[in-house]
Amino acid sequence: MKSETIISDQFYTTSDNTNNNGHSISSSIFRINNPTSGKTIEKTSSPLGLIVLISTFALMLTGAFMVYQFQPDFDQFQIERINSSWGFPFLILAIALFIFQSGVFVYNLFLYFRYKPIESVSDELLPTCTVIVPAYNEGKLVWDTLLSLADSDFPEQKLQILAIDDGSKDDTWYWMQQAKIKLGDRLTIFQQPENAGKRHALYRGFELGTGEIFVTVDSDSIVKKDTLRNLVSPFVVNEKCGAVAGNVQVLNNKKALLPKMLNVSFVMSFEFMRSAESMLGSVLCTPGAAAAYRRDAVLNCLPEWINQTFMGQPSDIGEDRAMTNMILKQGLHVLFQKNAYVLTNVPEEYTGLYKMFIRWSRSNVRENLMMAQYVFKDFREGSKFGARLLFINQSLKIILAYPFLIFMLIFIATHPLLFLSSTLLGILIVSTFPVIFYAKRYNVADSFWAYSYSIFYTFSLFWITPYAIVTANKRGWLTRGLSDKK
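The line above is the sequence of Glycosyltransferase family 2 protein; the predicted structure tokens follow.
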């Protein structure tokens, strides 16, 4: 059985498949909105999804009603807290954090409205480009990735595509060979003798690549026809640009509920947050799904990057965040291109999702410690305020993870109904901005998944950051081989 994945004006046919992360490609047609062309493909609706959305609104409205009903209890709780030995200092801290976070949000909103992606330069001005695709147990998905790259409207004579099979145990190498047969000299494929990890596969590509710009694309991702040229154009117009992040959206957001939620979350994370970060020249992470790096910037930090360790152990996670950090440390700018779209697979089950988040959170902890070593020094010409603000904001989330976890557990133990009602009302208020943002950028119907995702994250993934902090030294990709264990 086959499905048609429609991306802008392109059609890609994808077989039903499951990759190493347990991601499945089903047969339903799904929607990918293109804000530039306005083209929309409808996707099939799910009865379960409708039930989840209705339940989401029922919970939030119930929470709001409970807050109204329990108002005297909330007043009494506030009085008791203020009169306690720890309550008043906690209140002052909470107010200070609220003011800081509100200020950061308003500042990000200001930066977002000022942001504009850099338009693609002409074919003559485009630099030579090496695209590196590392793959491990991706099966036929790597075929789809390589064909989408080859179909890019990037000058063929300036484009080198390298695919590295990192010792896969499935038919990934077969599909790379099939892609090689179809694409001929446009594609070069390599096979690692054994699985050494994504970082080592990328390292081989960096060593073999001849382009002025390196582009890394995950082997379960699909790029639009103009993604590559849009992704590398900033290097032409900005000589201080060292890296560029692509705009990641969810590919498998058809019937599975988690991808539907994550798609709204990704749009908020990339199109809002990274737009603001880009205005500061300090995007903190260039995603593995699609990112571009100036060749000289990569070679300057390549030995440090491949030999990176944490607490005496080789680093085998967070290769994208680490590369971004090391390029920022060189005083170069890291930008975001909203017009460089890439669609990638995300976990469809809770197990794969929380393991992916643990990996990301451990990387954040590690790289924040690394960033602390240079961000308050004279690492860059011009203003360093933006990078420092982003660092402080992210560090606060890590530092305060345990205090707020302890407060939450105490609140639940002593006033469970007050906690539940205030949390649900808080989600209704705070998540309304992502809903409005997504609805304005794409469509209203899918925007409501922001509410569901907030409830899901709050009650089932709140433990991720505290756990990642105490296990930051642990190695392992975590999501590799999940499908093999089923």
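Note on the example: DSSP finds 18 helices and 14 strands in the chain. The chain has one domain: 48-486.
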